[in-house]
């Protein structure tokens, strides 16, 4: 059975003979073989609940479960957090690599930041809600020849939250698979545990897997009223050496990306703060093979303005506005040139009122909206003309929501939620517009029998209207020996989902000695999706060229069900963590298993810090069970091992110095993941950073 996917790029070129064997247009294609850096050296810290470096660490705070800040230990949901300290120990080439060891999260990435795909519980990227500093990102979808990249430099991330399962009642249309929330750093974060008010950070890293270099420089400062940070990161890489054949891509590949980030916060009073941030990202992906040359360029601007004000228990305001613009250019020597432009303007407003009425209430209510526009130009020869494959189109999504965190007793709490959503899609092409609205309720019950143990159960509903490309994108294009045809479908229905989940979390301190801590989280889920949007593929080999025809259609009924487990134990300088995910995705109309989804995965990480010499060796194991890919090809299971060493010496006049080395895929295991990603061969990584 074909994988239930969204059509992505239609002519991203295949660069080596391995990729030529696959169905080029059923999934997204980078300009070199897809790689899944399964065990990046320094992703060692990323395990599902290793959220405390020591028992005395400040409790991790999350927002994705309830839209307001709360400790992770009190979050009644399947949430994983990658903390600032964990990210600081890593050297990821792309953002997707940060998520590699989270249960039931699949990532597909390449050496270029333009090609990152994240799947949560079998969902597609279009079914995930992406948040940066609380603002929804509407330009992270894929369609036609436009790739998707989560353009967020890991150097500026304070925290990454992944909430498995739908939650659109809080965050708007689209997140029926899960929510991915990124929080950026402030100067106070860079200067934490320091009495300095100004500082700078420089960092350099190298990876042999794709001959990659990364360089970063940031400056930051703070005062009683101001907090300012600014910096830039540059990344360069070439052809990847995959584990499949142990050879580099046969194409001459040149990737580079530059990320600029500026953020300023003004706090005139203790209860009043205004923040303005700007992010600029540009990426190039150039390749040449024989007489064929392809050039991809992706550019993004993002401006976010936010204001927070807390007057009393009844007035706790948060509001934000965002403007984002993305431009994608493709050209080759066929000749064929494309220019796509994507713009969005979005905003949200919420207030939280806290009061006592037969128990404690934290009542949060508000509204959000997002207006998106896209257009395309093309030039075969001569003048630029409108690209009929991507007609001018616009979309509007809006809604109002309310949620009550109601604590009846010290042992029992209930959190009902309700959202009204509206959407509209229209195009200047000869297609009818589409609009609709829907109420999506949800409820969570939380039971805390003792302080260290919590149980929860929840039922939440989701709602995802089709994106513009799913409805209006069309194509008829020949490249690399095949012809691809995409037929638009303006009659698509929105996807509707119901998520059932039960779980428990544990948090015990001083179990076997003073200072140790054991945390664990377990959940069982059942996601029921109606009118699932699937891209059907019809091959035709009767002509001189094989023809693949694609069209998005609604399926009747898809179910995702599974288990997620994680645990962490810390005592003195020793820590160990483990996680496990089981996922079964099934098309109930055909009773067939959905392909392209990793059925089982497990991770183990352990390390010990020698305080007297500031050295921390670590080991990590990643295991994945095999299954059928979206190309109807079976890939076997695999296990990869990684080892590494980090060193944080104390050097006078430097606030922090961190050096690291690591070896990924220690045994040089040859594998291709179920997501059709070619894993890296054995590789070496090294990095050095200094903050002063």
Question: What does this entry look like structurally?
Answer:
One of its GO terms (cellular component) is cell outer membrane. Its main location: membrane. It is a multi-pass membrane protein. With 692 residues, the protein is mainly beta. It has one domain: TonB-dependent receptor, beta-barrel domain (Maltoporin, Chain A), CATH 2.40.170.20. The radius of gyration is 24 Å and the shape is globular. The N terminus is likely disordered.
Content-based structural category: mainly beta
User: Between the first and last Cα atoms, what is the distance in angstroms?
Assistant: 56 Å
What is the typical, i.e. mean, pLDDT?
Answer: 82
Helix content: under 10%
Tally of DSSP β-strands: 39
Number of helices: 5
Radius of gyration: 24 Å
Q: What would you say the CATH architecture is?
A: Beta Barrel
Dominant shape:
globular
Largest sheet: 22 strands, antiparallel, barrel
Tell me the number of structural domains: 1
User: Can you identify the CATH superfamily?
Assistant: TonB-dependent receptor, beta-barrel domain
Query: Could you please say which CATH topology applies here?
Result: Maltoporin, Chain A
Q: Report the sheet-strand fraction.
A: over 45%
Poorly predicted residue ranges: 1-57
CATH class: Mainly Beta
Motif (TonB box): 60-66
GO molecular function: heme transmembrane transporter activity; siderophore uptake transmembrane transporter activity
Domain TonB-dependent receptor-like beta-barrel: 253-666
Domain TonB-dependent receptor plug: 72-179
């Amino acid at each position: 059975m074909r994988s239930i996917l969204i059509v992505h790029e239609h002519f991203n070129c295949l660069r080596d003979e391995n990729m030529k064997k696959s169905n080029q247009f059923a999934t997204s294609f980078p300009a070199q073989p897809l790689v899944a850096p399964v065990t990046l050296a320094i992703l060692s810290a990323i395990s599902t609940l290793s959220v405390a470096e020591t028992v005395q660490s400040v409790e991790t705070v999350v927002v994705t479960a309830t839209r307001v800040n709360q400790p992770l230990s009190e979050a009644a949901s399947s949430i994983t957090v990658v903390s600032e300290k964990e990210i600081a120990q890593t050297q990821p080439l792309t953002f997707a690599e940060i998520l590699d060891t989270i249960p039931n999260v699949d990532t597909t990435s390449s050496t270029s930041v333009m090609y990152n795909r994240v799947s949560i519980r079998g969902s597609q990227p279009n079914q995930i809600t992406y948040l940066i500093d609380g603002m929804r990102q509407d330009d992270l979808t894929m369609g036609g020849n436009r790739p998707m990249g989560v353009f967020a430099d890991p150097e500026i991330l304070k925290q990454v939250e992944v909430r498995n399962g739908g939650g659109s009642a809080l965050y708007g249309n689209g997140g029926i698979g899960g929510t991915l929330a990124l929080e950026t750093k402030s100067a106070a974060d860079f200067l934490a545990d320091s009495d300095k008010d100004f500082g700078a950070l420089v960092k350099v890293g190298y990876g042999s897997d794709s001959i990659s270099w990364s360089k970063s420089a940031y400056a930051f400062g703070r005062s009683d009223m101001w907090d300012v940070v600014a910096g830039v990161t540059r990344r360069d890489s070439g052809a990847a050496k995959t584990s499949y054949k142990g050879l580099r891509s046969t194409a001459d590949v040149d990737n580079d990306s530059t990320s600029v980030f500026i953020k300023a916060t003004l706090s005139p009073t203790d209860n009043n703060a205004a923040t303005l941030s700007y992010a600029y990202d540009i990426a190039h992906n150039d390749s040449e093979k024989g007489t064929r040359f392809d050039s991809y360029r992706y550019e993004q601007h993002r401006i976010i303005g936010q204001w927070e004000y807390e007057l009393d228990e009844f007035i706790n305001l948060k509001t934000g506005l965002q403007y984002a613009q993305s431009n994608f250019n493709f050209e080759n020597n066929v000749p064929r040139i494309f220019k796509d432009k994507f713009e969005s303007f979005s905003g949200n407003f919420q207030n939280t009122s806290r009061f006592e009425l037969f128990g404690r209430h934290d009542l949060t209510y508000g509204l959000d909206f997002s207006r998106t526009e896209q257009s395309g130009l093309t030039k075969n020869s001569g003048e630029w003309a409108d690209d009929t494959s991507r007609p001018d189109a616009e979309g509007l999504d809006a809604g109002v929501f309310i949620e009550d965190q109601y604590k009846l007793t010290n042992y029992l709490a209930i959190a009902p939620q309700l959202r009204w959503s509206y959407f509209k899609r229209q195009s200047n092409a000869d297609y009818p517009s589409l609009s609709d609205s829907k109420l999506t309720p949800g409820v969570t019950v939380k039971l805390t029998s003792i302080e260290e143990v919590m149980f929860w159960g929840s039922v939440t509903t989701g709602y995802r209207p089709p994106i513009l490309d799913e409805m209006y994108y069309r194509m008829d294009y020949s490249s690399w020996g095949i012809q691809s045809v995409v037929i638009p479908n303006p009659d698509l229905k929105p996807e509707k989902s119901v998520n059932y989940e039960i779980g428990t979390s544990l948090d015990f301190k001083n179990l076997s000695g003073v200072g140790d801590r054991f945390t664990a989280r377990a959940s069982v889920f059942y996601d029921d999706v109606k009118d699932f949007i699937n891209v059907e593929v019809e091959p035709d080999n009767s002509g001189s060229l094989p023809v693949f025809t694609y069209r998005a259609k609604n399926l009747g009924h898809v179910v995702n069900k599974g288990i997620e487990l994680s645990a962490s134990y810390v005592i003195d300088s020793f820590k160990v963590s483990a996680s496990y995910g089981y996922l079964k995705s099934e098309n109930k109309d055909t009773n067939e298993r959905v392909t392209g989804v990793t059925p089982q995965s497990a991770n183990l990480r352990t390390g010990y810090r020698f305080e007297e010499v500031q050295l921390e060796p670590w080991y990590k194991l990643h295991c994945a069970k095999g299954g059928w890919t979206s190309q109807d090809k079976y890939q076997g299971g695999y296990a990869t091992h990684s080892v590494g060493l980090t060193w944080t010496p104390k050097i006078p006049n430097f606030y922090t110095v961190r050096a690291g080395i690591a070896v990924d895929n220690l045994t040089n295991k040859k594998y291709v993941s179920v997501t059709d990603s070619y894993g890296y061969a054995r590789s070496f990584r090294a990095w050095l950073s200094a903050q002063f």
